[in-house]
Amino acid sequence: MAINKPYTDPSELAPIIPLFPLEGALLLPRCQLPLNVFEPRYVAMIDAALAGNRLIGIIQTALDQPALAVPGAPEIVAVGCVGRITEIAESGDGRYLLNLSGIARFKVVAEVDSGTPFRQAKVDYEPFRADFTPNAGAEAVDRGTLLRTLADYLDANRLEADWKSIKDAPNEALVNALAMMAPFGPREKQALLEAPSLASRAEMLIAVTQMTMARTGGEGDGTLQ
């Protein structure tokens, strides 16, 4: 098995993957999510992933929307994103420090009784086939409005940014990075994940940011009521 493996089609991904439920977490295709793993069941999950295909599904615990009932475990939402372990280090005290590289979103079909301390599920990537094509729909992003909204937010909160890097970033990288870094709550993060296109994710990011600033007098608090 290749260690550095690109994925170009849903058929190339495992149909059953381990799940890492994380409230408020967001992983998107071709983005990086750093993780500090210390719970024994998730350390076991990392060990199993390293011995196999290195795939882990990041998914949120249930919001106020239909979710999958799991006896004896927190409910989870129906859509997550699978990532591949691309960097990992041992902390020396039993923890793993790692980076997941996002590949594609998935829909949970059903959880499986795997006999492992961590949860696993059968998943379907087909509804998100476009995730396998870099920059799909990037030309439809309203980049100007997105950058103006970002500038307003940073100014209102007295924050600095590397504008050269922001302006040089392609639309997909810009939208997805901002979505992952945005200080929004779990509901907004899940909506950004499930956005049907890159342009709609950008529109949602703009709308949530503007509404947050309007409600808080300019400063963002990361959530919507």
TrEMBL record:
InterPro entries tied to this protein: Lon_prtase_N (IPR003111), Lon_prtase_N_sf (IPR046336), PUA-like_sf (IPR015947)
One Pfam family per UniProt: LON_substr_bdg
Listed SUPFAM superfamilies: PUA domain-like
Protein name: Lon protease-like protein
Residue ranges of every copy of the Lon N-terminal domain listed in the record: 17-213
Top-level taxon in the UniProt lineage: Bacteria
